[in-house]
Amino acid sequence: MSKNTILILVGFVILALAGCAAHTNLQPVGKNNIDANLSIGGPVIKAFGARIPIPYATGGVNYGIRDNFDLNGNLHLLPAAYKLFGCDFGATWFPVLNNFSKPTIGLQARLLTMASLKADVDSRFRFYPSFSASSAWKMGGGLFYTGADITVPVTSPDYDDDAVSVIFSPFFGYRWNLGSHTRLLTEIKWNGANIQTHQLAVEYLPVANYGAITTLFSIERSFK
Question: Which distant-in-sequence residues (6+ apart) come within 8 Å of 180 by Cβ?
Answer without folding.
Answer: none
